[in-house]
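Hi all, long-time lurker, first post. I run a small reading group and we've been trying to get comfortable going from sequence to structure in the token notation. Rather than ask abstract questions, I figured I'd post a concrete chain and ask someone more experienced to write out its structure so we can walk through it together at our next meeting. Sequence below, copied exactly:
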Amino acid sequence: MLLGTGIALLAYYVVKIFIKKGVTSRICYGLIIASGILHMNKMYLFYQQDWYSQLRFMNEIAESQYIRDHDTFLCIFDRLPATGGTRFYSLNGASREVTGQQTKLFMCGISELTVGVAYNKWLHHGYNMDDYTQADTTIDGVIFIRDKDMGLRETVSMKWDELFNRDRFWDRNLGWKDIVCVPIDKENSEMIYKLYKEGRLGMGDIEEMCLR
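-- Answer (accepted) --
Happy to help. Here is the structure in token form:
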């Protein structure tokens, strides 16, 4: 809350110190305000893109019997929103919203394999996985989320439909969905964890195990 106020005060006094009162100072204030509005609206649209991606993910959970029947997944996104809002706890929250349970762990990207490696029930309490009881965190499947670049104009159009035409919004949002869940066995799960702990795991390794 104070960040915006602090930036506004800083901008005001910078202009006041270096530019005399008059038309020039008013133009500078106007440009600063306009750029701030544009930047914040752009960031808001990035959050919307993140949310729409999570809605598609929730739809996949609801439709996939394999995901509902298993507990531990590694999620690989082709692209992640600029906000960095998609993390394991937000994916777990999406699962909780769909299933009403906190029994699953969805790790978002290779870096979050650390959650599976060092899982601790008490450490991770409150991350939408309170009832997750897997002792060995064996990965049951890899979920590939191939989100395409929606673009800001398309995001604005989607937001309009979300507000005023929900049926068309859902049809359009699911039209962007490209999600594939690939089951893996315990051997491949152990290999993924092993390569990760050794610092040698790359996307090519995961794709070779799952998509060959």
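A couple of things your group might point at:
The two ends are 49 Å apart (CA to CA).
The CA atoms of residues 46 and 70 lie 31 Å apart.
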